Structures are given as C-alpha cells and as structure tokens.
Amino acid sequence: MSGKGGEDAGLLERGPPQPPLEWRLSNAFGERTAGEEVQEVDIISAIEFDKAGDYLATGDRGGRVVLFERTDNRYLRRRRSLERLDYRVGPPVFCYKTEFQSHEPEFDYLKSLEIEEKINKIRWCQTSNGALFILSTNDKTIKLWKVQERKVKRVSEMNLKGSQSLGNGSISSLGASPNPKASLLNGVCTERRYHYLSEDFSFPPGGFPSLRLPVVVIDHETNLAARCRRIYAHAHDYHINSISNNSDDETFISADDLRINLWNLEISNQSFNIVDVKPANMEDLTEVITCAEFHPSHCHTLAYSSSKGSIRLIDLRQSALCDNHSQLFEVHEAPGARSFFTEIIASISDIKFGRDGKYILSRDYMTLKLWDISMNSGPVATFQVHEYLRPKLCDLYENDSIFDKFECCLSGDGLRVATGSYNNLFRVFGTVSGSTENTTLEASRDPMRRNTQNQSRPGRALSNLTRVVRRGGGDSVSADGSGNSYDFSCKLLHLAWHPTENFMACAAANSLYMYHV
Q1: Rounded distance, CA 196 to CA 175, Å?
Q2: 210-213 long-range contacts, CB within 8 A, separation 24+
Q3: Residues 438/17, Cβ–Cβ less than 8 Å
Q4: Are 10 and 23 in contact (CB under 8 A)?
Q5: Cβ atoms < 10 Å from Cβ of 240
Q6: In this model, does residue 485 exceed pLDDT 70?
Q7: Residue 412's closest CA among 58, 92, 52?
Q8: Would the pTM of this model clear 0.90, i.e. be above it?
Q9: Euclidean distance between CA atoms 358 and 378, whole angstroms
Q10: What percent of the chain has pLDDT over 90?
C-alpha cells in the first residue's frame, strides 16, 4: 500500500531496530452506534496532551473544550522507579474530567463576516496552584482558560429552627404584610404591631440577647469551574491556523496565513508582529504560512512552514522583525517532475519538534518528512502515507479532499512517528536506522484489523498525470492496490502521542479513541 523511503543514513541511531508495536484499545469516548448520524458541532477539531501527560484536551466544531484526566497513576507518581524494580505498571487510563464552552459564534459587522466557534488549536500552559491553564483559539480570537477545583460552600447552621426564623429575617415569617394597607409611609402601621407574624411564633422572655448570622461552612466536596482569564483578540486579519507556547512559560505565538504575532500571557491588548510575509501588492503573493511552532527548549527559536513545502527556522535574537531565517528546509523538485498538483500536495499542513528539539516532523498531503535541524540539505527520512492516491489526485481536487489538513506527531523517545489518513486509518513508522516498522491502524475497537506490512514501492511521477482538471462530481470512495476500499469522507485528521508513554489518542469524527501497547 505504501512504504518508507528517503535518506536512511540520516535516521536516528539508537540501537538496533525494535519490532513493530501491537496496539490495543484503551478507551473510547463518543463512539457512534450503527447508523447514528454525526452532528457537525460534535466533530473533534483539536487534540493535545499536556507536557506531563496527565491531562488530555479536545476541542470540537461547536466551540467546546473537553478535558480528560489520567487516573491510573494518581497514587503512583513514580512509575519509572517502579518499572526499574520490575514492578509491572499498567497502561495509562484516562477518564472524563470536565468540559466548558470556550467560543461562541460571532459576527464581524465591519467586514460582514461570520466567525465560527470551531476550535482550531489547543495548547496547555504551565500549571499553577493546582489550576490548569489552557489556550484555545478559533479563527480570530484566542482565550486563556483557568480550570480549577473549587470547594463547595454552604450555609450549615441557622439561628432559629422550625418556624422561629425571625432572627434570620425569613420572609416566610417576618415578610411584608399580606395586607397592603397594613403599612403606611415612614413605617407607620395602622394595625397591631405583630399582627402579621405567624401564630406559632413567640418571643423568648427578655427578647433576643444578640443578632446572630448564619454560618458558612466549606465542604469536602469540590466542583470544577472554568473561567476565562484573558482574551487575545483583534490581532489577525486572516484565520488563525496555529498557536504555540514558548518554553519560558511567559509568551506564545499565534500565526495566520501572512503573519506571526508574539504575545505575553499576561498582556491581552498588545502583541508584536515578528514575521510578516504579506507583499506590498497582494498579486505578488506566492506562498502563505501554514503552521508555526516554538522550539521545545530554546525560547528564542521557532519554526514555521509554508504552502510551498518549505520550513524556516528563525532566531528571535537576530531582529525584532524576523524577515530573514537562520535555516531553510525544503525539497527541490527534479526538473520536469512538476504538474498541476505539485504545489498543492507539497503544502505542509503540520510541523512538530521532537521532544529533544533536534528533529522536526512535517506532514504534507502525501508524505511525512523527518528533518534534522542541523542539516538542511534534505529530510533524513520520508514516509509515504497513502501513495495509492497519486492516480486519484484529479478526483481529490474535485471534491476538495486534496486540501485536507492532516496532523502528525512523534513519540516521546523519538523512535516513532504517526499521522492520519482516510477511512479513519492512521500510520505508525519507525525512525531508527534499519527499521521496517510501517503499521496501518484503524480508529476502531480493533485497531490492528486493517494492519498490513508492505514493502516500499516506487512512487509514480506526477508528470504522468494529466494537467487537465476534469469537471464533474468526484468519487468519495477509492481503492488501493490491494483492492481495499477507502472513503474520503471518513478521515483521521487529528491525533496526539503521549509525551512519555507509547499511548496515542485519535479523533475520528466525534469519537475519541485511545490506544496503548
């Protein structure tokens, strides 16, 4: 079906290749029953683990953010120490924690533009005092949310019991007179003084010695509350495609098609433009920004990708406006190999730094590419994701599937990479030199059902495809070389790898699947 190619000599040198992992279902949330229709607002549009791997956040097209918490190591925080002692520790277990409405649909009256509530990206911030902080964004507005457990407060003791509620000012026994004529201006009453009190009420001998107030007691029970702490708005003319936290835990970037802005988490009314690719004449525009990501440990380094398939590494120490890049990573097409679709499928939809910051993983429409940031001559490895689609590019263009934005992820140890495909499939590749791991998994209760191990096949030259775009309805169902059918309407765009475990979370429409080994 597809294989792995590229410069294997540059792959990670971390011992002998390991056998392919056997993935098993850990949990499933929002799974559909047969024939159940998926609501558009329930489709998952973003997914992200926090740095420690204790929490998972998902966002959907309805503007909601759902949080999941790891529960298996609540009392086993030293899992690694136990593993070194040959103590068998089970796979991570995540359970639903809470959810909240992050964004609402809006309307820009100045531009006559509807702003969807869909969550484009989610990023975790540094925790503080037991509170979780999350950045979420739609097309125009970024919000910082604080999620914290609050202890329940209640009134546990009243001064008087039963009908003796005078000391508490109960409106049932000392309320306004039911007779509107009983009270006059300035409190002058025409009737007997206590005529409107309940019949069973009586003053104690000598009256009440003092005024006593109810006692508020804090229970042991807690409830989760999400509160919006900051709103970062009015800084992007185009749709925000990515946000990324800095390793200094004080700043973050947001990127749209033409600009990248730098924000301070504590300042919501001011940002600094650090990258601007907008030409003086928009007719001269040749490429746009597709994704931006901070280096995991160097607070002055970030990378951004473009629609032409290039990745630029920039250093914030060079200048305030980073017009010049320090490194450029791109693949040069052979002369004569270009076609109508060359630039479309070369557009990078997602980039991720490895945990150690030495490698960058990029995803274009057809391939995954692994780059060494110290070597810009070419990718150290190229992984073919769905090579069988090359003859179908015309159909994919007609039904707009060729513009789908697939995400990618790396394992915490950097030994494997993963990305999604059609028919709710996702692929896992080994990055160690000599590795043949090339696993196809399905986002279902039996992930290994569609697994096939195929050898690398030479890709077809794009020049063999017709340059004429056919008009008419594109077929949403295709088949690979083995005769397996694939539905282009079922696509796995979003997935995330746990930062320390071989554990993945995948979003298939409105369903969230979690897998372990």
Answers
A1: 8
A2: 211/167, 212/159, 212/167, 213/159
A3: no
A4: no
A5: 21
A6: no
A7: 52
A8: no
A9: 15
A10: 61
**Whole-angstrom Cα distance, residue 293 to residue 272?**
16
- Residue 308, Ramachandran bin (φ over 0: left; ψ between -120 and 50: alpha; else beta): alpha
**What are the pLDDT digits (tens) for 30-86?**
988 777 888 999 999 999 999 999 999 999 999 999 999 999 865 455 555 555 555
Amino acid letter, residue 464:
N
Closest of 491, 485, 489, 496 to residue 508, by C-alpha: 491
Q: Which residues of 408-428 are buried (b: 16+ CB within 10 A; e: fewer)?
A: bbbbbbbbbbbbbbbbbbbbb
Terminal Cα-to-Cα distance of the chain (whole angstroms)? 24
- Calculate the CA 284 to chain-centre distance: 33
Which is it for the CA torsion 18, 22, 26, 30, positive or negative? Answer: positive
For range 499-517, the mean pLDDT: 95
Q: Which two tokens stand for residue 335?
A: 């002369």
Residue with tokens 């090359």: 390
Checking if the pLDDT of 281 tops 60, the result is yes
Within 10 angstroms of residue 178's Cβ, the number of other Cβ atoms is 7
Q: Are 260 and 253 in contact (CB under 8 A)?
A: yes
Phi, psi of 464 (to 5 degrees): -75, -15
d(CA 499, CA 513): 17
| pLDDT digits 0-9 by tens, 366-410 | 999 999 999 989 999 999 999 999 999 999 999 999 999 999 999
| Residue 77: per-residue pLDDT | 52
C-alpha to C-alpha distance for 224 and 285, rounded to whole angstroms: 47
Q: Residue 338 pLDDT > 90, yes or no?
A: no
